[in-house]
Amino acid sequence: MTKPLLLWTRNREGNFVPEPRVESAPFAATGIAMTFGITMKTGTKFSLSAMFLGAATLVGIILLLYWFSPGGIRSNYPAKENDPKLSKIARSVVPIIQKVEAFESRKGRLPETLEDLAVELSQIPPVYYMPISNHYILSIKLGWDPKLTFDSQDRGWTFDPGDGSPEKKIKLDVETTFGQKAEQL
């Protein structure tokens, strides 16, 4: 049994008109994989199976980006006190904190940039450093949006989801400088 398919073609006046055609395979047997010709205004023919393949690829890419965001931490990460994952990330920044504070104790001022510290920056995670008068802030990107921030003024860590929801001050089990714990006061 055959089922007629409608193809749209342009007539001599330039109008689109249906053109009935008969395919040899039944519509139900071929399902979505059956190729239908659709003529657009430009006269280009697209295959529905090709469009389906393109849409499936796009959905797959979106799902991969959703599940595997850079850094492995998404905005909805449930940051908590002494979080082992965030503590591990914070521990990787301890050498920078120690170098900044050693620089400050030697020179009596904060370094203007991390390059002033002569730290091997390739062995640490990407960190944003911002000196502010008598203290500094270190910020670590955890993915597209979230970041973990250390503020030397209150020696505290803050998790910022980056999606507009409020930041969360958290205590992490991290030794920072000369045996002191970096904890929120």
Explained architecture:
The protein is elongated. It has two domains: 4-67, no CATH class; 71-170. It has a five-stranded antiparallel beta sheet, covered by helices on one side. It has a two-stranded antiparallel sheet with strand order 1-2. The model is unreliable at 24-43 and 181-185 (pLDDT under 50). The protein has helices at 27-30, 48-67, 84-91, 94-107; strands spanning 4-10, 16-22, 37-39, 45-47, 127-132, 135-141, 147-151, 156-160, 168-170. With 185 residues, it is an alpha+beta fold.
- Strand neighbour order, sheet with most strands: 5-6-7-8-9
Oligomer: single chain
Question: N-to-C terminal Cα separation, in Å?
Answer: 79 Å
Structural class: alpha+beta
Low-confidence stretches: 24-43, 181-185
Instruction: Please state the CA-atom Rg, rounded to the nearest Å.
Output: 30 Å
Number of domains: 2
Major sheet summary line: 5 strands, antiparallel
Strand percentage lies at 15-25%
Strand elements, count: 9
For the residues shown, what is the average pLDDT?
75
Order of helices and strands: EEHEEHHHEEEEE
The share of residues in helices is 10-25%
Total helices: the number is 4
Shape: elongated
